[in-house]
Protein backbone atom coordinates (compact mmCIF):
# COMPACT_ATOMS: atom_id res chain seq x y z
CA UNK A 1 0.00 0.00 0.00
CA UNK A 2 1.09 3.57 -0.56
CA UNK A 3 0.14 6.75 1.28
CA UNK A 4 2.30 9.86 1.00
CA UNK A 5 5.25 7.61 0.18
CA UNK A 6 4.30 5.17 2.94
CA UNK A 7 4.34 1.56 1.75
CA UNK A 8 4.02 -1.93 3.13
CA UNK A 9 7.29 -3.68 2.34
CA UNK A 10 8.93 -7.02 2.82
CA UNK A 11 12.49 -6.73 4.10
CA UNK A 12 15.36 -9.00 5.01
CA UNK A 13 17.55 -8.81 8.10
CA UNK A 14 21.11 -8.13 6.93
CA UNK A 15 22.85 -7.81 10.28
CA UNK A 16 22.22 -7.51 13.97
CA UNK A 17 24.61 -5.90 16.45
CA UNK A 18 24.13 -6.66 20.14
CA UNK A 19 25.28 -3.79 22.39
CA UNK A 20 23.98 -5.46 25.56
CA UNK A 21 21.39 -8.15 26.36
CA UNK A 22 18.57 -5.69 25.86
CA UNK A 23 19.97 -3.14 23.42
CA UNK A 24 20.68 -3.94 19.80
CA UNK A 25 20.77 -2.55 16.30
CA UNK A 26 19.08 -4.34 13.45
CA UNK A 27 19.85 -3.60 9.78
CA UNK A 28 17.10 -4.48 7.32
CA UNK A 29 17.01 -4.20 3.54
CA UNK A 30 13.60 -3.57 1.93
CA UNK A 31 12.99 -5.99 -0.95
CA UNK A 32 11.55 -3.24 -3.16
CA UNK A 33 12.44 0.40 -3.82
CA UNK A 34 10.86 2.68 -1.27
CA UNK A 35 10.91 6.34 -0.24
CA UNK A 36 14.01 7.45 1.62
CA UNK A 37 13.04 8.51 5.15
CA UNK A 38 13.92 11.86 6.67
CA UNK A 39 14.93 12.30 10.33
CA UNK A 40 11.88 12.02 12.57
CA UNK A 41 9.97 9.65 10.29
CA UNK A 42 9.47 6.09 11.45
CA UNK A 43 8.54 2.57 10.36
CA UNK A 44 6.19 -0.03 11.79
CA UNK A 45 8.18 -3.26 12.04
CA UNK A 46 6.96 -6.80 12.52
CA UNK A 47 9.32 -9.77 12.67
CA UNK A 48 6.77 -12.47 13.50
CA UNK A 49 4.09 -14.34 11.57
CA UNK A 50 0.42 -14.23 12.56
CA UNK A 51 -1.42 -11.96 14.94
CA UNK A 52 0.18 -12.55 18.31
CA UNK A 53 1.27 -9.89 19.11
CA UNK A 54 -1.32 -8.21 16.93
CA UNK A 55 0.38 -4.94 16.13
CA UNK A 56 3.64 -4.02 14.44
CA UNK A 57 5.91 -1.83 16.57
CA UNK A 58 7.09 1.71 15.62
CA UNK A 59 10.80 2.54 15.34
CA UNK A 60 12.65 5.57 13.96
CA UNK A 61 15.73 4.75 11.87
CA UNK A 62 19.11 5.65 13.31
CA UNK A 63 20.80 5.41 9.89
CA UNK A 64 19.91 4.92 6.24
CA UNK A 65 22.42 3.49 3.76
CA UNK A 66 22.96 4.05 0.04
CA UNK A 67 21.69 0.57 -0.82
CA UNK A 68 18.40 1.44 0.92
CA UNK A 69 19.05 -0.57 4.07
CA UNK A 70 17.80 0.88 7.33
CA UNK A 71 19.31 0.62 10.81
CA UNK A 72 17.10 0.62 13.90
CA UNK A 73 18.36 0.93 17.48
CA UNK A 74 16.03 -1.10 19.65
CA UNK A 75 15.69 -1.46 23.40
CA UNK A 76 13.84 -4.54 24.65
CA UNK A 77 10.91 -3.38 26.77
CA UNK A 78 8.22 -5.99 26.13
CA UNK A 79 7.00 -8.81 23.95
CA UNK A 80 7.40 -7.26 20.49
CA UNK A 81 10.93 -5.98 21.03
CA UNK A 82 11.90 -9.31 22.63
CA UNK A 83 10.80 -11.17 19.49
CA UNK A 84 12.63 -8.67 17.26
CA UNK A 85 15.74 -9.24 19.41
CA UNK A 86 15.58 -12.94 18.48
CA UNK A 87 15.71 -12.18 14.72
CA UNK A 88 18.58 -13.79 12.87
CA UNK A 89 20.42 -12.69 9.74
CA UNK A 90 18.48 -13.61 6.63
CA UNK A 91 15.12 -13.56 8.43
CA UNK A 92 12.20 -11.85 6.73
CA UNK A 93 10.44 -8.94 8.39
CA UNK A 94 7.57 -6.66 7.44
CA UNK A 95 7.83 -2.88 7.35
CA UNK A 96 5.36 -0.06 6.88
CA UNK A 97 6.91 3.29 6.18
CA UNK A 98 8.29 5.80 6.07
CA UNK A 99 5.46 7.10 8.28
CA UNK A 100 4.82 10.51 9.79
CA UNK A 101 6.15 13.99 9.31
CA UNK A 102 9.89 14.61 9.64
CA UNK A 103 11.69 17.48 11.35
CA UNK A 104 11.59 20.56 9.09
CA UNK A 105 14.84 21.60 7.41
CA UNK A 106 16.96 23.37 10.05
CA UNK A 107 16.79 27.17 10.02
CA UNK A 108 18.71 28.21 13.16
CA UNK A 109 22.38 29.21 13.31
CA UNK A 110 23.22 26.04 15.24
CA UNK A 111 21.31 22.79 15.53
CA UNK A 112 21.27 21.37 19.03
CA UNK A 113 20.06 17.78 19.04
CA UNK A 114 19.06 16.24 22.37
CA UNK A 115 18.43 12.49 22.54
CA UNK A 116 17.52 10.42 25.58
CA UNK A 117 17.73 6.60 25.56
CA UNK A 118 16.41 5.21 22.24
CA UNK A 119 15.33 8.76 21.39
CA UNK A 120 18.98 9.01 20.35
CA UNK A 121 18.08 7.20 17.10
CA UNK A 122 16.37 10.01 15.16
CA UNK A 123 18.75 12.57 16.67
CA UNK A 124 21.85 10.76 15.39
CA UNK A 125 20.20 10.33 11.98
CA UNK A 126 19.44 14.09 11.95
CA UNK A 127 22.99 14.92 13.03
CA UNK A 128 24.57 12.92 10.20
CA UNK A 129 22.16 14.32 7.65
CA UNK A 130 22.47 18.01 8.55
CA UNK A 131 25.96 18.43 10.06
CA UNK A 132 27.46 19.61 6.76
CA UNK A 133 24.67 22.15 6.25
CA UNK A 134 24.52 23.77 9.69
CA UNK A 135 26.84 23.61 12.74
CA UNK A 136 25.36 20.80 14.82
CA UNK A 137 25.89 19.37 18.28
CA UNK A 138 24.52 16.06 19.51
CA UNK A 139 23.88 15.67 23.23
CA UNK A 140 22.76 12.25 24.41
CA UNK A 141 21.62 10.85 27.71
CA UNK A 142 21.79 7.15 28.58
CA UNK A 143 20.76 5.33 31.75
CA UNK A 144 24.12 3.72 32.54
CA UNK A 145 26.80 1.13 31.82
CA UNK A 146 24.67 -1.13 29.62
CA UNK A 147 24.93 1.57 26.95
CA UNK A 148 28.75 1.67 26.97
CA UNK A 149 29.25 -0.51 23.87
CA UNK A 150 26.76 1.60 21.95
CA UNK A 151 28.48 4.84 22.98
CA UNK A 152 31.86 3.46 21.88
CA UNK A 153 30.53 2.01 18.62
CA UNK A 154 31.33 3.07 15.08
CA UNK A 155 27.89 4.68 14.93
CA UNK A 156 28.97 7.42 17.29
CA UNK A 157 32.32 8.14 15.60
CA UNK A 158 32.91 11.41 13.77
CA UNK A 159 30.31 13.13 15.90
CA UNK A 160 30.37 16.46 17.77
CA UNK A 161 29.02 14.60 20.75
CA UNK A 162 28.45 15.06 24.45
CA UNK A 163 27.36 12.04 26.51
CA UNK A 164 25.55 12.13 29.85
CA UNK A 165 24.54 9.17 31.96
CA UNK A 166 22.18 9.00 34.91
CA UNK A 167 24.77 7.25 37.10
CA UNK A 168 27.85 9.04 35.71
CA UNK A 169 29.34 5.74 34.46
CA UNK A 170 29.57 7.01 30.86
CA UNK A 171 30.49 10.59 29.96
CA UNK A 172 29.28 13.24 32.36
CA UNK A 173 26.75 12.74 35.12
CA UNK A 174 23.30 14.07 34.29
CA UNK A 175 20.93 14.26 31.35
CA UNK A 176 20.93 16.25 28.10
CA UNK A 177 19.18 18.99 30.07
CA UNK A 178 22.29 19.27 32.28
CA UNK A 179 24.09 20.40 29.13
CA UNK A 180 21.57 23.21 28.64
CA UNK A 181 22.00 24.34 32.24
CA UNK A 182 25.80 24.15 32.25
CA UNK A 183 26.70 25.24 28.72
CA UNK A 184 23.72 27.42 27.91
CA UNK A 185 21.89 27.76 24.64
CA UNK A 186 22.05 30.63 22.15
CA UNK A 187 19.00 32.67 21.15
CA UNK A 188 19.58 31.68 17.52
CA UNK A 189 19.97 27.97 18.29
CA UNK A 190 17.38 25.56 17.00
CA UNK A 191 16.65 22.69 19.40
CA UNK A 192 15.29 19.26 18.43
CA UNK A 193 14.67 16.61 21.06
CA UNK A 194 13.50 13.03 21.37
CA UNK A 195 13.46 10.93 24.51
CA UNK A 196 11.49 9.94 27.59
CA UNK A 197 8.40 12.04 28.21
CA UNK A 198 9.82 13.35 31.51
CA UNK A 199 12.86 14.73 29.68
CA UNK A 200 10.70 16.41 27.04
CA UNK A 201 8.38 17.95 29.64
CA UNK A 202 11.34 19.35 31.57
CA UNK A 203 12.88 20.71 28.36
CA UNK A 204 10.31 23.51 28.17
CA UNK A 205 11.41 24.87 31.57
CA UNK A 206 15.09 24.68 30.61
CA UNK A 207 14.59 26.66 27.42
CA UNK A 208 12.05 29.26 28.46
CA UNK A 209 13.13 32.77 27.37
CA UNK A 210 16.38 31.31 25.96
CA UNK A 211 15.42 30.32 22.41
CA UNK A 212 12.56 31.32 20.14
CA UNK A 213 9.50 29.14 20.75
CA UNK A 214 9.19 28.31 17.06
CA UNK A 215 12.77 26.96 17.06
CA UNK A 216 12.07 24.02 19.38
CA UNK A 217 10.75 20.72 18.02
CA UNK A 218 10.14 17.42 19.80
CA UNK A 219 9.50 13.93 18.47
CA UNK A 220 6.87 12.17 20.58
CA UNK A 221 6.06 8.53 21.21
CA UNK A 222 2.61 6.97 21.45
CA UNK A 223 1.29 3.45 21.19
CA UNK A 224 0.33 2.89 17.57
CA UNK A 225 -1.86 0.62 15.48
CA UNK A 226 -2.24 1.68 11.83
CA UNK A 227 0.61 4.21 11.72
CA UNK A 228 -1.06 6.12 8.89
CA UNK A 229 -3.70 8.25 10.59
CA UNK A 230 -6.72 5.98 10.15
CA UNK A 231 -7.49 4.53 13.59
CA UNK A 232 -7.04 7.55 15.91
CA UNK A 233 -5.25 5.24 18.33
CA UNK A 234 -2.36 7.62 18.88
CA UNK A 235 -3.96 11.04 19.45
CA UNK A 236 -2.46 13.58 21.83
CA UNK A 237 -3.85 16.91 23.05
CA UNK A 238 -2.36 20.02 21.46
CA UNK A 239 -3.22 23.71 21.44
CA UNK A 240 -4.78 23.07 18.01
CA UNK A 241 -6.97 20.20 19.30
CA UNK A 242 -6.28 16.49 19.20
CA UNK A 243 -3.50 15.46 16.82
CA UNK A 244 -2.40 12.01 15.61
CA UNK A 245 1.21 11.28 16.55
CA UNK A 246 1.61 8.93 13.57
CA UNK A 247 0.33 11.26 10.85
CA UNK A 248 0.37 14.84 12.23
CA UNK A 249 3.62 14.04 14.08
CA UNK A 250 5.62 12.42 15.52
CA UNK A 251 7.45 15.76 15.26
CA UNK A 252 5.63 18.70 16.84
CA UNK A 253 6.53 22.25 17.75
CA UNK A 254 7.17 22.13 21.48
CA UNK A 255 4.80 25.08 22.02
CA UNK A 256 1.92 23.23 20.32
CA UNK A 257 1.82 20.28 22.71
CA UNK A 258 -0.53 20.46 25.73
CA UNK A 259 2.09 19.06 28.11
CA UNK A 260 -0.08 19.23 31.24
CA UNK A 261 -2.67 16.94 29.64
CA UNK A 262 -0.21 14.28 28.43
C1 LIG B 1 7.55 7.24 16.43
C2 LIG B 1 8.18 6.24 17.38
C3 LIG B 1 9.52 5.93 17.24
C4 LIG B 1 10.10 4.99 18.10
N1 LIG B 1 11.42 4.70 17.92
C5 LIG B 1 12.00 3.77 18.70
C6 LIG B 1 13.36 3.40 18.49
O1 LIG B 1 14.05 3.93 17.61
N2 LIG B 1 13.88 2.43 19.28
C7 LIG B 1 13.14 1.81 20.27
O2 LIG B 1 13.66 0.92 20.96
N3 LIG B 1 11.86 2.17 20.50
C8 LIG B 1 11.27 3.11 19.73
N4 LIG B 1 9.96 3.44 19.95
C9 LIG B 1 9.23 2.78 21.05
C10 LIG B 1 8.86 1.36 20.61
O3 LIG B 1 7.92 1.43 19.56
C11 LIG B 1 8.26 0.60 21.80
O4 LIG B 1 9.25 0.43 22.78
C12 LIG B 1 7.77 -0.76 21.34
O5 LIG B 1 6.63 -0.60 20.52
C13 LIG B 1 7.43 -1.63 22.53
O6 LIG B 1 6.92 -2.85 22.05
P1 LIG B 1 6.94 -4.14 22.99
O7 LIG B 1 5.96 -5.11 22.42
O8 LIG B 1 8.32 -4.63 23.20
O9 LIG B 1 6.44 -3.59 24.37
P2 LIG B 1 4.97 -3.69 24.98
O10 LIG B 1 4.83 -5.05 25.60
O11 LIG B 1 3.97 -3.25 23.98
O12 LIG B 1 5.09 -2.59 26.11
C14 LIG B 1 6.13 -2.64 27.11
C15 LIG B 1 6.16 -1.31 27.84
O13 LIG B 1 6.54 -0.24 26.95
C16 LIG B 1 5.50 0.75 26.88
N5 LIG B 1 5.34 1.15 25.47
C17 LIG B 1 5.09 0.33 24.44
N6 LIG B 1 5.02 1.02 23.29
C18 LIG B 1 5.21 2.31 23.60
C19 LIG B 1 5.24 3.51 22.85
N7 LIG B 1 5.05 3.55 21.53
N8 LIG B 1 5.46 4.65 23.51
C20 LIG B 1 5.65 4.65 24.82
N9 LIG B 1 5.64 3.55 25.60
C21 LIG B 1 5.42 2.40 25.00
C22 LIG B 1 4.25 0.06 27.39
O14 LIG B 1 3.36 0.99 27.98
C23 LIG B 1 4.80 -0.91 28.42
O15 LIG B 1 5.05 -0.26 29.64
C24 LIG B 1 9.35 4.38 19.12
C25 LIG B 1 7.99 4.70 19.27
C26 LIG B 1 7.42 5.63 18.41
C27 LIG B 1 5.98 5.96 18.57
S1 LIG C 1 -1.78 4.76 14.85
FE1 LIG C 1 -3.67 4.83 13.76
S2 LIG C 1 -4.10 6.96 13.72
FE2 LIG C 1 -2.12 6.86 14.59
Jot down its keywords.
262 residues; alpha/beta; Elongation Factor Tu (Ef-tu), domain 3; Rossmann fold; 2 domains; eight-stranded antiparallel β-sheet; seven-stranded mixed β-sheet; 17 strands; 16% helix; globular; binds flavin-adenine dinucleotide; binds FE2/S2 (inorganic) cluster
The CATH architecture name of the largest domain reads 3-Layer(aba) Sandwich
Please bin the fraction of helical residues.
10-25%
The coarse silhouette is globular
CATH level-four homologous superfamily name of the largest domain: Nucleotide-binding domain of ferredoxin-NADP reductase (FNR) module
Give me the CATH fold name of the largest domain: Rossmann fold
What ligands does this structure carry? flavin-adenine dinucleotide, FE2/S2 (inorganic) cluster
Could you give a short account of the major beta sheet? 8 strands, antiparallel
Q: Helix count, per DSSP?
A: 5
Number of strands: 17
Distance between the termini: 32 Å
Number of domains: 2
**Radius of gyration over alpha carbons?**
18 Å
Mean pLDDT: 93
| Percent of sequence in beta strands | 35-45%
Query: What's the order of the H and E elements?
Result: EEEEEEEHEEHEHEEHEHEEEE
Amino acid sequence: MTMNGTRDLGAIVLEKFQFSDELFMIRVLPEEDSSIPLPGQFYLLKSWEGFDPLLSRPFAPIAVHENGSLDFLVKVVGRGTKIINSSIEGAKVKLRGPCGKPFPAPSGQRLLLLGGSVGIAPMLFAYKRYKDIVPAKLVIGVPGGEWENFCKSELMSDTNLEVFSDDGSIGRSGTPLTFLTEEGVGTDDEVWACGPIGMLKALGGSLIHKVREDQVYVSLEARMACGIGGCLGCVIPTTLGNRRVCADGPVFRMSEVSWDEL
